[in-house]
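Q: I have 287 residues here and want to know how they pack in 3D. Can you give me a structure?
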Amino acid sequence: MTALGPSGSPSPFGPPLDTRALFPRERHALLELLRSLDPDDWSAPTVCPGWDVHDIAGHLLNDYLRRLSGGRDGHRGAVFENDETLPAYLTRVNGVFAQATRQLSPRVLTDLLAHLGPQLDALWATVPLEAPAGVDVSWAGTDEPSPAWLDIAREYTEFWVHQQQIRDAVARPGADGPELLRPVIDTFMRALPHTLRTEARPDGTSVRFDVTGPAGGRWSAIRHAGRWLPSPPTPDARPAAHVTTDQDTFWRLATRGITIEEARRRSVLTGDEALTRTATTLLAVVA
């Protein structure tokens, strides 16, 4: 069965996922990491073009400030320029803030994250999970408003991924235990139906993703009433297309930390080739 939305119709986003308790745990790992860095570590280049570790930390601070200012205080913030697309807008405003925070010392950046994080936790605690999202999650679908739980989960993945980018840059082990990573994978899988939207198939056609590793699991999407919807896979189901990949490959694919071609080389694709190739273009960030 597919998950139902508030109206009783099938939900395009799947069953609710409450990630609110994970923010303090992810932030604790982040702060421990930042406080352990040597001065040279802060200038290490990251996978984000043109950004070093200091810039990533500044970007995280921007995320904290932006969500508190908008979600708690109702502040409008930066506005779109004429004919500016969402990716262009984000590139511009994120770049301006990263450049500004280069004036801040690593200690100041870390202290600000530690100070503001609990305020953000308190904000999430006040939000009804099934209420409309503060910011829609475009990569999970654009034809229906996103629920708040998906918006909050998306923010959790944003923080977790940026922490991993810092860890990669300074050659530190990832904070990738199942407790922290599995909700990231589960959230990213909410992009699968939207990823498949251009692939018309008969109702009942399914696509399955198996993610191996301690944080992995099994996810699927099914064609229903002319659209793709999340659907829990059943043991006896035979999907039309099947992708098996490991947990590290999957989150990097979803955030384009690796190319689509590299992700496919690391994966096993069986069944309907067009469906497997489309499924492996899954993207869970704005780009």
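Q: Anything worth noting?
A: Residues 1 and 231 are 6 Å apart (CA to CA). Residues 4-8 have pLDDT under 50 and may be disordered.
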